[in-house]
Structures are given as C-alpha cells and as structure tokens.
Amino acid sequence: MTTSITPTTDRARRVTRNRPSGPGRRGEPAGFMTRAVAYVIDAVVVVLLMSLGAYALDAVVLLATGTTTGTDFGGMPSGWIVTLITASTVNLVYLTLGWWLFGRTVGKLVVGVRVVGADGRSPSFFRSLVRALMYAVSAVFGLGFAWVGLRPQRRAWHDYAARTWVVYDWSAHSMSNYDEDPLPPRS
Fold first, then answer.
1. For the whole model, what pTM was predicted?
2. Who's near 70: CB < 8 A, 6+ residues apart?
C-alpha cells in the first residue's frame, strides 16, 4: 500500500528553515547530496547493463560464427562514438522506463527518493522521456544539477522541463523490541 505524495506547486515552493529530519521528511524535496548519490548508483547500473549486453552479444556471435565481436573496437577511432551512442541509448531507456513504471530508478530506490509530478504520482511516459532527454542538458558543466543545491525548490533543469519533483519517500518505522537489542542473549 502506497500513500500519495502530493508536492503541489505551493508546497514545492515553500521553504522552511527548520525542515524535519528522518522519516518525517516524506514528500519533502530531496537534497543535492541525496540526488548525487542516486545518480552515481544509476551510472554504475547503466555501465553494468552495457557490460552484460556486450558480453551477451559477444557470446551469441561466438556461438554463431566461432569469432568474437571485438567489443574493445580494436582501437578504431570511431569506437568511442559507438560506445557513447550505446551508453546514451541505454541510459535514456533505463531512466525513462524507471521513472514512468516505478517513479524511481535503482539509485533513487536505494537512497529513498521518488520522482513525482504535481499530482504526486509517477510521471507519464512523455514527462519521463522529456526528463531523461533533459538530463544531458543538465549535465553540461553540471549547471543543471547544481541548480538543486542553489535553488530553494531543489529542482534541476530537467525537473523544470518535465514539471517533476524528486521527493523523499521514507516510511515511518515503529520501533520494536528486536530493534532495541538485535543480538539474542548468550546462553
């Protein structure tokens, strides 16, 4: 069961000096460092997806022809262009599908944040695609990402373009006796 996170335009613009900490921050805009950690985790996931894809392709070609694809591109000058296009495509698909289907990527899941529209739901496919495409623009010299730390609304350029917010999605956790003493008594 999920609860609705509703960052209305007024709530997103409201800036309080004493923001609550911990699980009570649910629905509050996520900060720069939280989003940066999620970004690094997502970059690792994209690299792993590309590596697995390259090894799978190499294995299929090896089985079919008896030779490898030469995924190291054999020092070809255009090899980096192919790698860049492949990485961009994998990244675009990964981000768009993650935000559209789940409201988050693996990185955002790990750090406890979610991407939402003004209605508090996961963005539509179109908004997710716009957001993913604008990631490249935000990455130019890091200015679009730096906007999260510079602006009180904590939104990057791609958030403004897609009309989305990244909010904390922590659930409150009631403490049990097990949490107080996780180790069983020695006998």
1. 0.70
2. none
